[in-house]
């Protein structure tokens, strides 16, 4: 696990430097905005794959958009899912962005998820690591290295209401749920980057993130293996919960590579209110 962790820190430093700090090679390439996004995504994916190929304990990996598991070492025990860059559309507005990693042992299902990590780039360059033995730890980048900081834990109730999906596609039930939190003084904090929105809830010690089923995404928008499982794992290790209308996210079984899900995660009080709304 240490070798996998070190590989992800190498990934973080490379992408932060070459995409978010010294980004001239992308900005001065005379590419269209779409071509630049594709170029950035390709670069980040290549960095991730290059670093994991150096780790003997990694059996293989799969990216959210690759949809194909690549075996690199038959004797390795870790299978890794990743999101190379979380929502490239936000590059245009100089937002922080992130990468997400799920570290599975032997099988890619929630039961065999041994650790999860995400990186936030740009103005907030940090790394968050979660495991059952360590809890949730974040690392800040200072003087050329990642420095371990205090553990992250959610309180029973927060004040953030992070709401994904197009408002005009929400069901009346979901709109009523969202409004009920705003009416209680919750603050809107939504970047449309899953890693950054998770980061907000963890650092503010609570709140609710919701990505419901919509007309455009009736099965949800969050990929289970690459996004929902790792983020749910991190939230649970911090003392929170992550669910859909079908139950606990980490209880999902027989998941396919392409499968998406709606998701609601955050503090226990908020998730209880979400469950109450499902049953009303």
Automatic annotation (TrEMBL):
It holds the Pfam family FBPase_C. The keyword Magnesium applies. Gene3D superfamilies: 3.40.190.80, Fructose-1,6-Bisphosphatase, subunit A, domain 1. GO terms for biological process: fructose 1,6-bisphosphate metabolic process; fructose 6-phosphate metabolic process; fructose metabolic process; gluconeogenesis; sucrose biosynthetic process. Residues 156-276 form the Fructose-1-6-bisphosphatase class 1 C-terminal domain. GO terms for cellular component: cytosol. Keywords: Carbohydrate metabolism, Hydrolase, Magnesium, Metal-binding. Pathway: Carbohydrate biosynthesis. Residues 10-148 form the Fructose-1-6-bisphosphatase class I N-terminal domain. Transmembrane segments: none annotated. GO terms for molecular function: fructose 1,6-bisphosphate 1-phosphatase activity; metal ion binding. Belongs to the FBPase class 1 family. This is Fructose-bisphosphatase class I. It comes from Halarcobacter ebronensis.
């Amino acid at each position: 696990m240490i070798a996998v962790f070190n590989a992800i820190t190498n990934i973080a430093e490379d992408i932060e430097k070459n995409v978010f700090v010294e980004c001239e090679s992308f900005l001065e390439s005379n590419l269209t905005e779409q071509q630049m996004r594709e170029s950035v995504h390709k670069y980040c994916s290549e960095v991730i794959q290059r670093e994991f190929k150096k780790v003997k304990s990694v059996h293989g990996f799969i990216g959210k958009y690759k949809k194909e598991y690549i075996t690199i070492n038959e004797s390795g025990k870790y299978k890794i899912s990743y999101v190379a860059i979380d929502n490239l559309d936000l590059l245009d507005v100089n937002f922080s962005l992130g990468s997400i990693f799920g570290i599975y042992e032997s099988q890619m299902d929630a039961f065999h998820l041994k650790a999860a990590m995400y990186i936030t780039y740009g103005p907030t360059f940090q790394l968050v690591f979660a495991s059952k033995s360590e809890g949730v730890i974040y690392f800040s980048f200072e003087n050329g290295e990642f420095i371990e900081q205090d553990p992250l834990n959610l309180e029973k109730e927060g004040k953030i209401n992070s709401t994904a999906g197009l408002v005009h596609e929400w069901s009346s039930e979901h709109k009523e749920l969202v409004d009920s939190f705003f009416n209680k003084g919750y603050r809107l904090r939504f970047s449309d980057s899953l890693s950054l929105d998770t980061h907000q809830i963890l650092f503010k010690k609570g709140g609710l993130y919701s990505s419901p089923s919509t007309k455009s995404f009736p099965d949800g928008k969050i990929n289970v293996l690459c996004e929902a499982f790792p983020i749910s794992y991190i939230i649970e290790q911090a003392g929170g919960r992550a669910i859909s209308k079908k139950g606990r996210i980490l209880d999902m079984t027989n998941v396919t590579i392409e499968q998406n899900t709606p998701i609601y995660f955050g503090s226990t009080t908020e998730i209880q209110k979400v469950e109450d709304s499902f049953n009303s």
